[in-house]
Amino acid sequence: MERQKRQILNENLRVLLFKYSAPTITGMVIVALYNLVDTLFVGNIVGPNAIAGLTVVLPVMIFIIAIGLLTGVGSASIISRSLGKGHNERAIVAGGDSIVLNTVLNVITIIPIYIFSEDILRFLGASSEVLPYARDYMNIMILGFVFLSFSVNGSNLIRAEGKPRASMYEMVIGSILNIILDYLFIVILGWGVKGAAIGTVISHIASSVYIFIFFMSRSSIFHLKLKMFRINKSISREILSLGIPSFLMEIMGSIMFLLFIRFVGKYGGDVYITITGIGIRIIDLIFMPLLGISQGFSPIVGFNYGAKLYLRVKRVLREAFMWTSIITLSGFIVMVVFPESLLSIFTSDMEVIEKGAAPLRLIAMLAPLWSFPVLGSAFFQAIGKARPSLIITLSRDLFFFIPSIFILPLFFNLWGVWASWPVTDFCCFLMAAIFLIREVRIINRDIEIEKEKLS
Question: What's the predicted TM-score (pTM) here?
Answer without folding.
Answer: 0.74
